Amino acid sequence: MGMVMVKCPQTGHAIPTGIQTDRESFGRCAVFFARTRCPLCRTEHGWFAREAWVDEPGIRVRHRNALASTPIKRGLLTVMEGDNGAHENLD
Q1: What is the pLDDT of residues 36-73, one digit of tens each?
Q2: Is residue 23 situated within a structural domain?
Q3: Do 11 and 40 meet the contact criterion of CB atoms below 8 Å apart?
Q4: Pick from 14, 10, 16, 17: nearest CA to 32
Q5: Which domain holds residue 73?
Q6: How does strand 33-37 pair with strand 44-48?
Q7: Predicted TM-score (pTM) of this structure
Q8: Residue 3: which of 39, 40, 52 has the closest Cα?
């Protein structure tokens, strides 16, 4: 299990959404829109599932450039991760 994360548009840092799931389950979810209160800039950010990722503590990305061409399938959508900086804050 991990936390669904999104990128704060103001600071560029990863923030938790409060939704816990695993990557496989999140990948099967329908496209949706949600709002999350950001603890960094103290505003509410709207986001779509395609903009989010699951940060599972046992799974870490070694090099963020390796993600730039890795498609992530979510239901009927394919998302290209890495270019949006979503994983910049992972170890």
Answers
A1: 999 999 999 999 999 999 998 876 554 344 343 334 44
A2: yes
A3: yes
A4: 17
A5: 2-80
A6: antiparallel
A7: 0.62
A8: 52
